[in-house]
Amino acid sequence: MLELRGVSYRYAGYAKPVLHEVDLRLADGEIVGLIGPNEGGKSTLCLVASGLAPASIGGQLTGTLTIDGTPAAGLKTHELAERVVVGFQNPNTQRSGIAATVFEEIALGPMNLGLPVPETVARTREAVGRLRLDHLVERDPQRLSGGQAQLVAIASLLAMRPRHIILDEPTAQLDPEGTKLVGEALRALATTGTSLLIAEHKTDLLDGLCHRVIAVDGGRIVLDGPTDTVLGDPRLEGELGVEPPSRVRLARAAEDAGVDPQLVAAALR
Amino acid sequence: MVERASVIASAQRARGLDTEGSIRARLRGILPLAGPVILSSLTEVEERSLALEVRAFGRPGRRQLLWRLPDSTAQLVARAFMVLGLAATILLRLTGTFPRLP
Q: Which residues lie across from A5 on neighbouring strands?
């Protein structure tokens, strides 16, 4: 379990905190969606929940982050990496630049951990399989399309076999097929007890994937509840500037047009 | 960097920057390119380092290698001879006993 308690965070060089008194709990096997307007604190929350803020980038944190019962304060970045990983939306900045093939790129994490070769290869093969990247393993990681590179970046995180995965807009570069693939892989991971926090603008992805959704605005958690409740909340479009999933929009349009919502729901099924 | 520079050059050209023509015109075009190239590289450094740290890049101790190149005794001996040969050549050259090339 990953738990934030009363966490406020201020970036180094900033006068004011960006996160205020955040309480967040990720149970094992739980998939939590994270939505909110730009500059609302989504990315900062991702960094703080991963422990990299402040462990790597500095800044000032008050409150506590606990990972599987261990306080994150005092853990070194590589010790954090064995417990929780974070992925970003730009695949170019996530590429190591030192691997000659996609296979070695994905294997880099386990190699850094000094794991035996069979274990390194097994983890890499598993990550490759989860994102169906078999046809890319021999390729040069520098010469992939944006979507392929992003899948490789996510696979590189999975090869670390962390207990907790945090993804900051993982599907921004992906086509619908790639988005679906990532969704399936994450769902399968959750069944093995991995907990996931996914910041996304694509609420359709979150709708089918998450057990719970939280919304952050102004550095505070403003909504937290079951996926249906939060994604159906009228404040999404207004205050939060988040487009509700198509299912919700369709139901609303049907209601406005005087069509029985039960009928629409049945048709969607 | 090269990739980034070409993207930025295209973007600046689209906004009317002259990157062709006389040498003076091209030199004038360098500044609007150099600024964004250097600054955007610097801003990316943080995310890059985070992405590596997430993969335990900063871990002390031995890393695992996927490939081990075979290193036979014969190769080891050959390398030792080469190092000795180099040292001997330098020594002979310094003492003047090694013949000079005409």
A: A64
Rg (CA), chain B: 26
Q: Give chain A positions within 8 Å (CB) of B56.
A: 78, 81-82, 109, 112-113, 160
Residue B63 lies in a domain: no
Beta bridge partners of A60: A10
Indicate yes or no: CB of A82 within 8 angstroms of CB of B47.
Answer: no
ipTM of this predicted structure = 0.85
> Tokens 């880099």 label which residue?
A108
Q: Report yes or no on B51 lying in a domain.
A: yes
- The SS3 assignment for A70 reads strand
Residue range(s) defining the domain that contains residue B81: 71-102
Within this chain, do residues B22 and B50 fall inside the same structural domain, yes or no?
yes
CB A84 within 8 A of CB A50: yes
How many domains is chain B built from?
A: 2
Q: What is the pLDDT along chain B (102 residues), one digit of tens a residue?
A: 777 788 888 888 888 777 777 788 778 777 778 888 888 888 888 888 999 999 999 899 888 888 888 889 999 999 999 999 999 999 988 887 777 666
- Closest-CA residue of A relative to B51 is A94
Q: For residue B40, count other CB atoms closer than 10 A to its CB.
A: 14
Say if B102 falls within a structural domain. Answer: yes
Q: Is residue B43 domain-resident?
A: yes
